[in-house]
């Protein structure tokens, strides 16, 4: 389960009591989520993992442990996966992460189960990529907001169920493309959003674009 929220200025303000306001909104809102402690997913989590994709995320893990009685598992992420040193570092981090998970859960991580999980996520990622391509059509059969919400559904659903639902959506899109696309060209400008995470609940940019 991915624990993150967006678009809630109240949580941002609460989180700002624990970290400098010079830190990004995502970090402050995440801290606010822990400080409030009412999120059902958070309340029912036995283990918390933090991917240290930047120094602020690493700091988030430290503050969760300092203030909120959680000792998160930190997974270091290299800045460059293409260098041999980056791959070696990440392999070490994964091995260390797996060892800690096994110790905390009392269960051994079996290679065949890990391989099955990798294949599952690879298939999910491939299906999502194919769904993305429908937005490049002149008369796209699915809106970005719908794709946005579809991606975020994967934060919470059972992954096997999620893959099945993605396959159904992809088939619907392919069927729609074959028989129902309009021949009228939509001449409105196309906008590409690129940047940091858009967390669940943070639809400000999408709302502004759609309104205009």
Question: Which strand order does the major sheet show?
Answer: 1-2
What is the distance, rounded to the nearest whole angstrom, between the alpha carbons of the first and last residues? Answer: 34 Å
Total number of helices: 9
Element pattern in H and E: HHHEHEHHHHH
Annotation, overall tally of beta strands = 2
How would you characterize this protein structure?
The protein contains 9 helices and 2 strands, in the order αααβαβααααα. The chain starts with 8 loop residues before the first helix and ends with a helix. Helix 1 packs across helix 2 (25-36), helix 2 (25-36) runs parallel beside helix 4 (55-67) and helix 6 (111-132) packs parallel to helix 8. The longest helix has 22 residues, at 84-105. Strands 1-2 form a two-stranded parallel ribbon. Helix 4 (55-67) links the parallel strand 1 and strand 2. It is 56% helix and 4% strand. It is globular, with a radius of gyration of 20 Å. It is mainly alpha-helical. The chain has helices at residues 9-15, 25-36, 40-43, 55-67, 84-105, 111-132, 144-153, 159-179, 204-211; strands spanning 49-52, 73-76.
